[in-house]
Amino acid sequence: MTTDRLNYLNILLMVLSAGLALMFPFELFLFSYGVLGPLHYLTEISWLHDRDFYVKGRSDPWVLLAIAALITLLFLGAIPQPSGGGWGEALVTLSFWIAFGSVALKDHPSRWLLAGAGALALFLFGLPFPLKIAFGMFLPTLVHVFLFTGIFILLGALKGRSLSGILSLAVFGAMMLLFLWVHPGASYSPSPYVQDSYGVLTEGGGGTSPFILINRFLAHRLGFPGSEVLTGGSQAANHYLYSHPAALSLMAFIAFAYTYHYLNWFSKTSVIGWHEIPRRRAWVILALWALSIGLYAWNYLWGLKWLFFLSFAHVLLEFPLDQLTFLSIGRELVSLARLRDRAARGR
Fold first, then answer.
1. Is residue 273 scored above 80 in pLDDT?
2. C-alpha pair distances (Å), 264 with each of 24, 48, 202, 320
3. Where does the pLDDT of residue 202 fall: very low under 50, low under 70, confident under 90, or very high at 90 and above?
4. pLDDT tens, 129-145?
């Protein structure tokens, strides 16, 4: 598939994802997260493995995997949260710092020294509230699925320097603005089953679902009309999230971000070749995917627990690639500036 055709295909996928998100915001999210998500995590980790996870040290991916496992154990309550809390957010921040060292530093001792300094700073000073929100709530979720997806689209547009690439980036940005003015239909109402599945972690005293936390935080911080009920009782807050037009539009945006993030990955099969793997590994991936879907269908809570580690692992293991992408964008922008400078001198 040519680059232009791929860009136009992705524009179509953006429009399709946005349309479905506006019609079935909660249902689309649950489907994408439970069905498309596991296949994305498995195939991307496989693809990153074949490229040494874009790091300079062989042990670095294992450190990130160990941190993902520790975050999972903390999240599921398998190990007690140390006094003061906030350790999950600190571990995500440390992972991002370790990934930076893996990309920026060549020698092993320097990378470990940088990682140790970051860990010591987090232990001594902790994280201020804004960084806890940024790294704990948004970096593994919306920043990963929306902002980083946009960064990859931007890099493709800069490298390709084609109309289709620029148009793809423009449509992606327009989709974000779309949800500010367009709301799901007035007759839309998620079923009790959908509401229970979305708030699944409230079962068994597991606390508030991280999904609902994101909805509540954004609706409150963005000053949505009537969002003051989110600070009150859970019944009033849930009624707001599942029925208010602005809250439904926010959910539609979240559903769009996750759905297109997954579809964007699958659309690039012919370009990045994530499917070019040994047959045995392909069968293992398909078996794990089928198992994951089966667990989600049987019990959404157990499906989430089963794949929480895999989800966090793929986010953390992608950090080095994300940071390299930012560096590549910088190089492309410098190259464009030089070309414009040469063109101006030639006039």
1. yes
2. 20, 16, 31, 20
3. very low
4. 777 788 878 888 889 99
Alpha helices in the chain (DSSP H): 3-23, 25-31, 37-50, 60-75, 87-104, 108-125, 129-131, 142, 148-160, 163-181, 192-198, 210-221, 234-243, 245-267, 269-272, 279-298, 300-346
* pLDDT, tens only, 25-63: 999 999 999 899 999 999 999 999 999 999 887 888 999
CB-CB neighbours of 238 under 10 Å? 19
User: What length is written for the chain?
Assistant: 347
**pLDDT tens digits for 114-131?**
778 877 777 767 777 777
Query: Using an 8 Å Cβ cutoff, are 100 and 94 in contact?
Result: no
Backbone angles phi, psi at 280, to 5 degrees: -60, -40
Q: What is the DSSP string of 70-115?
A: HHHHHHTTSSPPPTT--HHHHHHHHHHHHHHHHHH--SHHHHHHHH
3 state SS of 28: helix
CA-CA-CA-CA dihedral for 235, 238, 243, 248, to nearest 10: 170
Q: Please tell me the predicted confidence (pLDDT) of residue 313.
A: 93
Residue 177: count of CB within 10 angstroms of its CB: 9
What tokens appear for 286 in the block?
A: 């398909």
